[in-house]
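tool_call: predict_structure(chain=1)
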Amino acid sequence: MQRITLSILAILLLAGGLAWVWLVDAPETVSIDQARIRLLPGDGPQAGYFVLQNNTRQAVRLQSADSPLFNRIMLHQTRIRDGQSQMDHLQGVEITAGDSIEFAPGGMHLMMVGANQPLEIGDLVPVTLEFSDKDNQARQLTFEFIVVPITP
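tool_result:
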């Protein structure tokens, strides 16, 4: 009886240890949802929007964005000042551990300048987001953004 109890205890400890290893080694990353580029008329800048989720155990900072289809991408924030809509350039956006932020019309967005080719609704555009953590360790993640009409 004692031998069976010890065997069961050993199995439970082993299973618990494997579960702990799985939790500790689980990939921590940043994810995005609803990644889209609103197709604006003409050759002017386009706007990129998404919901960003920080699935890591520490704060991360979105530093910059890049895409082979655009000459430049900037992080911007739309603000209303004295009744006028203005855009401020952001040096980065911090996302606390387990939190999410939204880049949406009328708020934060990616200002995508100088498309290298005409975009069409339904196109998938690779966009690389660069993040840093509290130790200034940089990490780049590439996501596909879909081109959508300007209507919400």
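agent: Residues 4-26 have pLDDT under 50 and may be disordered. Proceeding to next step.
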